[in-house]
Amino acid sequence: MCFSKRKKNTFQAGFTLFEVLAALVLLSLVLSRIIPGFIQILDSNARAQQRLEAYLLGSGKLEEILCQAERAQEGKFPAPWSQYNWRYDEEKSGEYINQILTVKWKDHLDERQVYLRKLRINTE
Prior knowledge:
Blueprint: H1 17-66, E1 74-76, E2 85-93, E3 96-107, E4 110-121
Antiparallel strand pairs: 1-2, 2-3, 3-4
């Protein structure tokens, strides 16, 4: 019998250090492009939520003013909406009355506002 010596394969499966570093660099490049997009989406979602809250609060307050349940011209909303301020104005022009309710709030460093308007015919 002839025994032939087989050479054992000493090759080990795995990645080299260069391949791992290249993968990490590519991953960081992809994440650096994706993360700002996610932040922008979350920020615009928060702004839309605040705008909707301001509109709903202002709509209710304008109805209170019109049915004379509220006599003040400006104020703050109760908690948990205490960051929202409101102001009511009337502009009379001829036979029309333009009723304006402005809701303001702070968004990070900016001040945001929503206007709600109702136009009535002056019956006086």
